[in-house]
Amino acid sequence: MPSPDALLSSVFGFDAFRPGQAEIVDAVLAGRNTLAIMPTGGGKSLCFQLPALCRDGVTVVISPLIALMRDQVRALREAGVEAGALTSGNTEDETNAVFQALDEGRLKLLYMAPERLASGGTLNLLRRIGISLIAVDEAHCVSQWGHDFRPDYLRIGDLRRALDVPLAAFTATADEETRAEIVTRLFDDAQPDIFLRGFDRPNIHLAFAVKSGPRRQILDFAAARKGQSGIVYCATRAKTETIAAALREAGHAACHYHGGMDPQDRRDVETRFQTEDGLIVVATVAFGMGVDKPDIRWVAHADLPKSIEAYYQEIGRAGRDGAPAETLTLFGPDDIRLRRTQIDEGLAPAERKAADHGRLNALLGLAEALACRRVSLLGYFGETEVTCGQCDLCDTPPDTFDGTQPVRMALSAILRTGEWFGAGHLIDILIGNETEKVRARGHQDLPTFGIGKDRAKGEWQAIFRQMMGHDLVRPDPERHGALRMTHAARPILRDEAAITLRRDTMVTARRAPAKTLVSEEDAPLLSALKAQRRALAEAQRVPAYVIFTDRTLIEMAETRPATLDEMARISGVGAKKLERYGAGFLEVITGDLSENMHPSRRKLAGRAQGDLYDRLLEVQADLARGATGTDKPLSCSASLLAKVATLRPTDEGALGQLLGARRADRFGPAFLEVLKEA
Predict the structure, then answer these.
(1) Assigned CATH topology for domain 4-196
(2) How far apart are CA 444 and CA 306, in angstroms?
(3) Which of 94, 310, 354, 479 could form a disulfide with 306 if both were Cys (CB 3.0 to 4.6 A apart)?
(4) 79 CB contacts (<8 Å, ≥6 apart)?
């Protein structure tokens, strides 16, 4: 069985596992049922791909979207791994190639959609080809109350029982309730090995801003990051189209994506996003789990997401390569009202609606946070040891004030009007604006009329929005959105509790500059490396990141490797990619291709065997004409030297078997000296 550490380096080009990966790989490799909850972009795929290469037989991977499967298969093949997918999007030739690889015993990973499990022939196929492991990606899709529920995921438990093989399930977001449902449906309540890794994505910068002209705010954010791939999420289909058009008018490459589009048009957008550098997709959440592009540099929300889990998943599509990424989430009272209404008007039972309100409240708490957003976000997932420096509130601590008195005024106005009105009418009462609606109801005679006239209308709007964020008031759908107090508001109204509010949310957020990926000195080289990558990707008709990710190119630009050995030590440069692309990228970095390395030596690049090969080559050159320099020339082939460097024989007999009598007689003693010193 090949070593996972060796394959991690030679196939995937990584020197070490990310935190938590090694333990999960060991569990899956040992054949134990496993459930791993890891952050988006935390390296989940490697945790089943690597064991698949180490284990005998074929690993079947159940994955929810065709685009996701095709991307992973393409990346694996680029790394030299035999993988294939059986999907409805396959051409006849693609399907035939997969079956041929299975029949010849070459295929190690077979991807398929859960819907394929409904076919009667699928079980027979999997039995015939010798499945030894089932891997389930996006395992939270089995949750019937989750927003990504896929009914066919419920068949996976039956498949596990029928094949009687271990199952490894992976997901990025699963609260305690969802985890329990996964264990029940996939593992028959038999407790698997559960790995709950940290949810922190330290490379992602978090920021929220109150809406004050959201289209302009999105345009400003995109303008500061021009040329970088990004996603803008919107709550409605119409808004995706209008914002995409505005971005194009501002000179960006942008397109829209939503569930109402023709399927072929959606596929065209997915293809463009995967293959074009710097494209912005403005989308509803329909543009979701299939996004596996590692070099998305930013994600913006033009509207508040549905829940804190949805927010975490959606921002998690940025920076999967580990390089810096940024987010911006816009929100306002209308967003909160929309999300409350969607929950209240849904078909879920009462207890589910209550839980969904709780999830929304957690997101609102994050939006209205007075201190570090990362502490708020990770605290929701149960993490308490948090280091940030990567959010807008850590960049610029908010200006706070004692909001107890104005909040009590607002609550009094709500109570005195019978909890029958929305924020707009209540603000008119507080600032003493005698509108026709106020006069018609005699509200100008209320004790609260005009008591807040020392504050501007915009300030009161911010106060009401923060009151909703603190869950002091909620819109009542049965009263057409009128604000009603919650139990949390009563102590403040009775002067038994105080509340702190943020002042800085009452002013327009300034345009934030983009964070640079590399220093000014390294930026030209990074651009040249990206151009080389783009040319190769276009020639092969694959996404640019399949060649190398942004993070790999950034490391090249910063460390500037001068040899293929140094290039092989760059994270993400495996043996296959070094062989295919190393020389070309080295030429970009050094300006010329001075190193003409034999293919046998290139395979050892970046490894200890490579240095050993070079020393053996030097010794051979000294002894090519014997110790006296007068003998007939003799040498070992490059492949033979590579074999000696790899096998490291320690005695004359073993070395003689490799070299043959004549070469062993000339080079044997000197070679053994080198091998002993290594």
Answers:
(1) Rossmann fold (3.40.50)
(2) 38
(3) 310
(4) 11, 12, 13, 574, 576, 577
Is 158 strand, coil or helix?
helix
Burial of 195 (0-12, 13-18, 19+ CB in 10 A): middle
pLDDT digits (tens, 9 = 90+) for 395-442: 988 889 999 999 999 999 999 999 999 889 999 999 999 999 999 899
How far is C-alpha 40 from the chain's CA centre?
4
What are the structure tokens assigned to 62, written together?
A: 């159940």
Q: Whole-angstrom Cα distance, residue 329 to residue 250?
A: 21
CA angle 543, 544, 545 (to 5 degrees): 95
- Overall CATH class of domain 400-502: mainly alpha
Please state, in angstroms and rounded to a whole number, the distance separating the CA atoms of residues 171 and 178: 10
Q: In the CATH scheme, what architecture does the domain 204-395 have?
A: 3-Layer(aba) Sandwich (3.40)
User: 566: burial class by Cβ within 10 Å (0-12, 13-18, 19+)?
Assistant: middle
Q: What is the CA radius of gyration of the chain?
A: 30
User: How high is the pLDDT of residue 532?
Assistant: 87
Angle between helix axes 652-659 and 661-677 (nearest 10 degrees) is 130
Q: Is 102 helix (H, G, I), strand (E, B) or coil?
A: helix
Residue 283 near residue 257, CB atoms below 8 Å: yes
- Residue 455: CB atoms within 10 A of its CB come to 16
Question: Minimal CA–CA distance to 503: which of 397, 581, 583, 599?
Answer: 397
Residue-wise DSSP of 347-384: SS-HHHHHHHHHHHHHHHHHHT-SS-HHHHHHHHTT--
476 forms bridges with which residues in the sheet?
482
**Residues forming a β-bridge with 110:** 60, 84
d(CA 406, CA 494): 13
- Going by their DSSP bridges, the two strands 254-257 and 473-476 should be labelled as unpaired
What pTM was estimated for this model as a whole? 0.71
**AA identity, residue 313:** Q
Distance (Å) of CA 266 to CA 38, 67, 288: 29, 11, 12
Please write down the HEC assignment for all residues of 187-237: HCCCCCEEEECCCCCCCEEECEEECCCHHHHHHHHHHCCCCCCEEEECCCH
DSSP H/E element including 583: helix 583-590
The domain over range 523-596 is classified in CATH as 2.60.120.590: no
Cα separation, 514 vs 224, whole angstroms? 5
Q: How confident is the model at residue 248 (pLDDT cuts 50, 70, 90)?
A: very high
> CA dihedral defined by 599, 603, 608, 609, rounded to 10 degrees?
-60
Which of 76-90, 247-261, 408-422 bottoms out in mean pLDDT, i.e. has the lowest? 76-90
Q: Which of 380, 359, 363, 361 is nearest to 147 (CA)?
A: 359
The predicted-structure confidence for 486-500, as pLDDT tens digits, reads as follows 999 999 999 899 999
- Burial class (CB within 10 angstroms; exposed 0-12, middle 13-18, buried 19+) of 447: exposed
